[in-house]
Amino acid sequence: MSETDSAQVKRAPAPPAAPRRPAPAGPLAGRWRWVAIALLLAAACYAPFQLVPFHVFQLTMVLVYAVALLGLNLLVGHAGQISLGHGAFFAVGAYTTAILLDHWDGMPYPVTLPLAAGVAFLLGLAFGVPAMRLRGLYLALVTLAMAIFLAPLLKRFEELTGGSMGLTLAKPAPPAWSGLAPDQWLYFLTLVVAVAAFLLAHSLLRSRVGRALHALRDNEIAAEVMGVRLSSYKTLAFAWSAMFAGAAGCVYTWVIGFVSPDSFTVNLSITMLAGLVVGGLGTLFGPLLGALFVMFVPSISQDINDAAPGVIFGLLIIAVMYVAPTGLAGLAERLIKKIPRKE
């Protein structure tokens, strides 16, 4: 063999390696996600039979806030818009339900749910029209102003809203065939509404609408070039967000049996936004984790220090965001990805 032939043999490329079998992360992750949801639902149905009434009430309020944060997540996490007035839409749903039940005797409780959600949807649609021309800090200030002036406005219409004293209402009573205690019945009513809200939001985000909202969030110019109507989707994002908040406000009235302007101050809107950021923007379980934060962290802060609960609350937010910059849901996803998988 000549030297030239020998050199060619040495320089001959090695045969290509067999392609590695891709890890089944996508389908497996989706399958395990549904398994986790099924287990979570099973635990949710089992919990009220094992807990004392006060803890059942706390879980009920977690579900109420989860529905409200689901709408805020749709607006902030998926559409990329900012809102500091989500508590105002929550209040609109609560007061719509309270007024219907207080002024119309015999009004069925289930009828108030679509009515409260519809009123909040129309208000969000009306608010979204001027807001679609704003962004960033300007939009945040406008939404904050809505949350600030709502409570004084409710106090001025005393004959309708009860003024500063609010409205006291009867809670839905469990039917005799259910065999449930009142707190358990309210819990399961709220659970049904929460599951329906999550399914509706999931279907919405997997449709063409969801893809348009994500395009709007990532790059408005590119979305407009691709044919996304920015004004329409920005307005609808506010309307859908308000609809979920209105439905949550309706269930809040069922559970509490009382509404007053002092229950819907600007602090509620800020706490909701903080809870969603801590839970995880744009994630499936972010609203639920954020609802746990909204429900339990203020009370924990109060127990730690009665004199300065706000300081403890702020420090807890800073600590969580330092450990999990993408929220608790993002932290859980990162930890799951680190689990070794079998090839």
UniProtKB/TrEMBL annotation:
It is found in: Cell membrane. The keyword Transmembrane helix applies. GO terms for cellular component: plasma membrane. Keywords: Cell membrane, Membrane, Transmembrane, Transmembrane helix. Residues 1-24 are annotated as: Disordered. The chain crosses the membrane at residues 30-49, 55-76, 83-101, 107-129, 136-154, 185-205, 236-256, 268-295, 307-324. The keyword Cell membrane applies. This is Branched-chain amino acid transport system permease protein. It comes from Nonomuraea jiangxiensis. It is a multi-pass membrane protein. It holds the Pfam family BPD_transp_2. CDD domains: TM_PBP1_LivM_like. Residues 13-24 have a biased composition (Pro residues). InterPro entries: ABC_transp_permease, LivM-like. Its main location: membrane. One of its GO terms (molecular function) is branched-chain amino acid transmembrane transporter activity.
